[in-house]
Design brief:
Layout (H helix, E strand, L loop, with lengths): L1 E2 L5 H8 L6 H11 L14 H10 E2 L4 E7 L5 E6 L5 E8 L4 E4 L3 E3 L14 E4 L2 H11 L8 E5 L9 H14 L7 E5 L3 H9 L5 E5 L5 H7 L8 H10 L8 E7 L7 H11 L4 E7 L13 H11 L5 E3 L20
Parallel strand pairs: 1-2, 6-9, 9-10, 10-11, 11-12, 12-13, 13-14
Antiparallel strand pairs: 3-4, 4-5, 5-6, 7-8
Helix pairs in contact: 1-2, 4-5, 6-8, 9-10
Length: about 325
């Protein structure tokens, strides 16, 4: 049975066959991505006979809810079940003037960052474009494109699933009407894929997880650095073709006594000061199996004060820590 979620207009047109006028594919496309059809039989813009044929031989492909967790701060973590029984996590974070949805691009993760609970899962598989978009359609209805931010910062390394990530981005922009200014991809630093991302006509904004001010410390925290060195990563960032409205984001997870000293802050400034960028600081979100501690708020503020003298620097407020929904905590916990 063919799954429509994840198909672009041309693929839907081919699926419908030569017996249907070309505009039918656009009607299905709009109904699935922009109008949020819950089932194929409910697409009222289609003739009844077409609806019946679609529903009989095809499925929409939305994920199913395995379990939902609500935080005291308003965040919500969805454990979503895919068609093959695999599960992924999606986090909805409402604010007064916007909503942010953190979505996964892989089931599990192969990168192995030592401060991240998701790394303990290992990699199960890549998600399809439909499974990536399906998280948005499930968790953020009704879609309000001007208020919804999408961050590909859940389970997985997006650049190791780049074809599906780029296709999902096209569907979210063209189909769901979400501006690429409101979609961000976070990577641990897959250097060849950063260049490939930069060549894409439609792409998310780029955020790079730096997390250390020296090669040695980064290698202990992020084993990927053994293959993709810090110096080369920064060179790839310098070469990245930013759009006129765009700047890079560097993310830096602060670990008490490991990478949060004043000297680290000064070295970080030297690494990024000549780039068009901002820095987001994230105090470690703790969890079982993670051998690090969260720095005191005063240390986080002191680090920020040094960095912000040279580049814009922000402290990311943790959301959903009590339900293991914060950055680095997504490990499919069920309680």
């Amino acid at each position: 049975m063919a799954v429509l979620l994840g198909m672009e207009v041309d693929e839907i047109r081919e699926l419908l066959g030569l017996g249907q006028p070309a505009f039918r594919a656009r009607q299905v496309y709009e109904a699935v991505y922009r109008q949020g059809a819950a089932e194929l039989g409910s697409i009222s813009t289609l003739p009844l006979e077409v609806r019946r044929e679609l529903a009989a031989g095809h499925s929409l492909g939305l994920p199913a809810l395995e379990r939902c967790f609500d935080s005291v701060d308003g965040a919500r973590r969805y454990l979503l079940r895919l068609a093959d029984g695999k599960t992924v996590e999606t986090v909805w974070m409402p604010e007064e003037r916007r909503q942010t949805l953190c979505i996964s691009t892989q089931a599990g993760c192969a990168v192995g960052c030592t401060f991240c609970m998701t790394a303990l899962l290992g990699l199960e598989r890549n998600l399809t474009a439909g499974e990536i978009v399906g998280q948005v359609l499930y968790a953020a209805r009704p879609l309000e494109g001007e208020r919804l931010n999408i961050v590909m910062m859940g389970q997985g390394e997006p650049l190791l699933n780049l074809p599906n990530v780029l296709k999902a981005t096209r569907l979210l922009t063209s189909g769901a009407g979400i501006s690429p200014r409101r979609i961000t991809l976070s990577t641990a630093g897959i250097i060849p894929k950063i260049a490939e991302l930069g060549r894409a006509a439609v792409r998310p904004k780029l955020a790079v997880s730096l997390n250390a001010s020296t090669e040695e410390v980064r290698r202990t925290l992020m084993p990927i650095t053994r293959k993709y060195h810090l110096h080369d990563l920064l060179e790839a960032c310098r070469a990245y073709p930013l759009r006129p409205w765009e700047r890079l984001t560097f993310e830096y997870v602060l670990l008490a006594g490991v990478n949060d000293s004043d000297a680290d802050a000064r070295r970080l400034v030297k690494l990024v000061a000549n780039l068009n960028c901002k820095v987001n600081l994230i105090a470690l979100n703790p969890g079982p199996g993670i051998p690090f501690e969260t720095p005191h708020p005063e240390r986080v503020l002191a680090f920020q004060q040094i960095v912000r003298r040279a580049v814009p620097c922000f402290i990311r407020k943790p959301r959903g820590r009590d339900i293991f929904a914060a950055c680095g905590q997504l490990a499919k916990s069920r309680s």
